[in-house]
Design goal:
Number of helices: 5
CATH superfamily of the largest domain: Alpha-isopropylmalate synthase LeuA, regulatory domain
Helix content: 25-40%
Shape: elongated
Strand order of the largest sheet: 4-5-6-10
Distance between the termini: 37 Å
């Protein structure tokens, strides 16, 4: 057996998360070929930086973090003024982690969500002796989304219930969103796995993604607790 450890090539998502950290980059898309090598990199960036500087940063970051050398000709870039960037809809958010922690007589559920190269964590609490993990995880997910889009979302959690369909247990989450004085109701679903809180977070995000995808991501102020990926 060889003593040399097998190395796994980074996924396209890993590379995009790295590129999205670069100053001036708003969003990116990486396309891999059948050998999982980079064939194309597409970037949306601010016009406040010189394109050559952004390209050099991409080359450096990918080499330092992933040991990948990129030909600059694989990078396609569109530069847009900052005020125009703020009008681009937020990339569809994704759940990065769902955790829980017992704190005396309460349990805290934390949901971390990423979107458009940013991340935010929302928390919700429940009593240890009277847990309602589905609703608590749903509330934490809503809180994380509000922080992510830097916008208060008028969301009411209507219900979170599990149903047996054949051999599978499915969680349905129903939320009502107040938009321009009108109420819209959305339903999200997720199979219930070994971690109920994660299932609830995914079902809630599934419901709200239909609305959040169309919200504008505003630039966070320095004092706001928006995390960089």
């Amino acid at each position: 057996m060889s003593s040399t450890a097998m190395t796994t090539k980074p996924s396209a998502n890993d590379l995009m998360l790295t590129i999205d950290q670069i100053r001036g980059v708003y969003a990116s898309c990486v396309i891999l070929n059948k050998n999982d090598d980079v064939s194309e990199i597409h970037v949306v960036a601010t016009d406040a930086r010189k394109p050559k500087s952004i390209v050099r940063d991409i080359e450096t970051m990918l080499f330092v973090k992933h040991r990948i050398k990129i030909d600059y000709r694989t990078i396609s870039m569109v530069q847009i003024p900052d005020e125009q960037l703020l009008r681009i809809p937020i990339a569809r958010p994704e759940i990065r982690s769902v955790t829980e922690e017992v704190m005396g007589d309460r349990r805290r559920v934390s949901v971390k969500i990423t979107g458009a190269s940013r991340s935010a964590t929302g928390d919700a609490y429940e009593r240890v002796d009277n847990p309602d993990v589905f609703r608590t995880a749903a509330k934490a997910t809503i809180s994380a989304l509000e922080k992510l889009v830097n916008h208060t979302i008028d969301v009411r959690l209507e219900d979170a219930q599990t149903f047996r369909i054949g051999a599978h247990e499915v969680l349905l989450v129903i939320v009502t969103v107040l938009i321009d004085g009108n109420e819209e109701t959305f339903v999200g679903s997720s199979f219930v796995g070994t971690r109920p809180i994660e299932s609830a977070a995914r079902a809630t995000l599934d419901a709200l993604n239909r609305r959040i995808h169309n919200l504008t991501l505003q630039a966070p102020r320095e004092e706001e607790e928006i995390e960089s990926i």
